[in-house]
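Section 3.1 - Work completed
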Amino acid sequence: MAGAAGVKAARRPEVRLPALEPYGGGELEPDGDYDGLEFREEDFVGQDGGGARFMDCVLVGCAVDETRLSRVRVLDSVLTGIRGVGTNLAEATLRDVELVDARLGGVQLHGAVLERVVVRGGKIDYLNLREARLKDVVFEDCVLVEPDFAGARLERVEFPGCVLKGADLSGASLTDVDLRGVASLEIARGVDRLAGAVISAAQLVDLGPVLAAEMGIRVEA
């Protein structure tokens, strides 16, 4: 559906991984450099990998509860079945990344930069993307509970098949954001920031009460 009616479609990542070596184990290191590695079922709970770089990597089934990954760079990588609560990815950079079937809660991505990223399947509760920059990002068939986009800049972002519960768009800037494919759309705050987004006629009806309240319109039978 994206690309129709003048909406520019998001460019998806094209991740082409080289032959990978298994991760040798041990704790993450701050400012570490991880290149061409496969991390499988690793327990990174509570560890500090702030400022690290992951390039051409695969992470499968890793636990990242309370893992400190601020300012991390994840490039040309695939993350599958990642799970954790309270993961700190503040000011991280994700470029050409696929995040598949994640189970995350309270993830801190404020101030982060996401470019050519696909988030497919899974569920993320209380995703903090305040002041983040998202360009060419696709959330696909996933559940986002109370995602916080306050002050964020979204350009060419799509949500096909997603459930958005209680989204906060306060102060956000939207350009070519396609919401028409959202399975369930609920905006808690910032409905006035929808300029630059495209919604369906049915979604307009559903958002009517919120839009009326935002504009100070009283609706009576």
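Second construct:
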Amino acid sequence: MIALVSLFFVSLFAPEASAVIGGDLNCTTYNGTAFVWTPSAVACSNTISDASCAILYPTTDTLGFPAAGNAAGRPLACYTTATATPAAVVQDMKTAAAANCPKTCGLCCQTDAYYCPNVAYPRLNCASITLSQCNSPAWRTIIAADCPSACGFCNQAGCVDAVTNCGTDLSICQNIGMQTFVNTYCQRTCGRCPSTTAAGSVTVTSGTCTSYIADSSSNCAAWSTNGFCTNTFYTVAQRRSRCATTCRIC
């Protein structure tokens, strides 16, 4: 009887191990029942080894570490000095975790490569983009222009290779017989990105004029970086109505 009572109190006061995300809800989404991790929460790689991250940021959650679609609690050491949730976010702890073990901690979406605005009217649902789409020649260039935060394209200025292995053999960039291929599939690696500069800014001039109507959106600078000014998915009229000054459209 004493053993049963002891077991009851141990279970009552033991650290919670149920699969519930608490504390810092960044990189999560509500699925109608619970908060779960978005694909971009774990889309990056850890800077140090996964094994080292598991030691630095241990978890007692029954589901293990954060993964796309699950509700595993973020390891506490990833964002706080507390030992139970709810817990206040300690920014220094979170910064260190994002720098070293962003995948283990479910913080990929807050790293530089994943933390940027998507365009206002994307051609696909940015929140539902999968890793296979991020690596697909059919989707990569569209995602880079419309949903850069979904695949870690925030630092690419809207220009990515359509295939992922262009850098394997850089001689293809100068191979006469490969020019059609590299112009289509290896634009970033081979320096074939249209209308972009090294800084990632985009300038589009439509007609000749000395002044432009004011931008109607405060997001034009970010949209331009993500390819809005050159994306033919939007008509010239649409680009002009929203970002005439930024896109230099008369």
